[in-house]
Design brief:
Elements: E1 3-5, E2 9-17, E3 20-25, H1 36-42, E4 46-51, E5 60-61, H2 68-82, E6 87-92, H3 94-105, E7 110-116, H4 127-131, H5 135-143, H6 145-156, H7 162-173, H8 178-189, E8 204-209, H9 219-226, E9 230-235, H10 242-245, H11 247-260
Parallel strand pairs: 3-4, 3-6, 6-7, 7-8, 8-9
Antiparallel strand pairs: 1-2, 2-4, 2-5
Helix pairs in contact: 2-3, 5-6, 5-8, 6-7
Keywords: Hydrolase
Region (Disordered): 260-282
Domain AB hydrolase-1: 21-118
């Protein structure tokens, strides 16, 4: 299990493939497991690094800081420790917001950014998620398995891959500490990147699903409005977990963007990338 020691804690990550580096960042209550199929498909073209944020998966934070700014610094230190001078960032939900924050604060290290169902404005989060950003409510939900499981079910049932996504998120949530649970979503709720992304000149692609009930899909329009280089890929049959709901089109569009900096036609299906021979097993 690859790990890396930073000033704030131990970072677990998975690395796979060959070629140019690409860093993958998961969302709230997630882990690197979200990207298992993605790194399998992209491994023949890129060397992929899938990180567990502090407090999620197998990463451990020593100072108890599970805020948006600390996650941006995690990515910054991760790249420094591994000698990754510059790379594209791909982030789902909270991970996409962190990716844009990294691009705004350390633009010299970021080649391009792909965000999937990511909030640009924290007010776009589902009201249930806004509530668990408060410590008292978070502790109640965290300590009451039925409440937490029911919330996860309600938030993951609207995509094509509802049952597998629910099980994946439920398993990942079982590893999250209560402080990471409420601090991370609380700081995301209060984030607004509209000013920070206005000066970005690197390629940006936003992936948004029509049936997303976790983050308003209208955030794709907000991204395009405020980031001058951004374009949007709209997925009519997806919820929040586009990579699970429409995997072939998602991966082909993402690969095209990473290779070319743009997608020739984000609204059309593109043939999925060929699978490499083996994938990580842990």
């Amino acid at each position: 299990m690859p790990t890396l020691v930073t000033e704030r804690g131990i970072v677990h990550y998975e690395v796979y493939g060959r070629g140019r580096p690409v860093i993958l960042l998961h969302g709230w209550l997630g882990s690197w497991e979200l990207w298992r199929e993605t790194i399998e498909l992209m491994g023949k073209d890129f060397r992929t690094y899938a990180i567990d944020f502090f407090g999620f998966g197998d990463s451990v934070e020593h100072t108890g800081d599970f805020t948006f700014g600390n996650y941006v610094e995690l990515v910054n230190q991760f790249m420094d420790r591994l000698g990754i001078v510059k790379a594209p960032l791909v982030g789902h939900s909270m991970g996409g917001t962190v990716s844009l924050g990294m691009a705004a604060r350390h633009p010299e290290k970021v080649v391009k950014v792909a965000v999937i169902g990511s909030p640009i404005e924290g007010k776009s989060l589902n009201p249930l998620l806004k509530l668990v950003g408060y410590k008292g409510i978070a502790q109640l939900a965290y300590k009451t398995p039925f409440v937490l499981d029911s919330t996860i079910f309600l938030l993951t049932r609207f995509g094509r891959a509802g049952a597998p996504v629910y099980e994946m998120v439920r398993q990942d949530a079982s590893k999250v500490s209560v402080n990471a649970f409420f601090q991370s979503i609380g700081t995301l709720r209060d984030t607004d990147l509209t000013n920070e992304i206005a000066d970005l000149s690197l390629p940006i692609m936003g992936f948004y699903g029509k049936h997303d009930v976790i983050v308003s899909p209208k955030q794709g329009k907000v991204l395009v409005k405020h980031a001058p280089t951004a374009q949007e890929a709209w997925f009519l049959h997806s919820g929040h977990f586009i990579m699970k709901d429409e995997p072939e089109r998602f991966h082909s569009t993402l690969t095209d963007f990473l290779k070319n900096g743009t997608s020739s036609n984000p609204t059309q299906n593109i043939q999925a990338a060929e699978r490499p021979a083996t994938v990580p097993t842990s």
